[in-house]
User: Fold this.
Amino acid sequence: MAAVVLGGVALTGGVGNVFGVVATGMTLIMLNPILIAMRVDSNNAQVIQGVLIAGVMMFGGLVAFLRERRS
Assistant:
């Protein structure tokens, strides 16, 4: 679900493309093994992944808010 939302597909439907979802899915799949290879504790790796997801969602919301405010 996170890959779909972060990939740009609207939960209400009608907006989005498959390339964003695939790219986001691959990024999320590869993030945890990369962090573990960097010797980050697996619990901390999940926290980092969650913080990144929340940050991207907040950034996307801010961009949408500014676009709506501008028009």
User: Anything to note?
Assistant: DSSP finds three helices and no strands in the chain. The helical segments are 2-6, 18-37, 42-70.
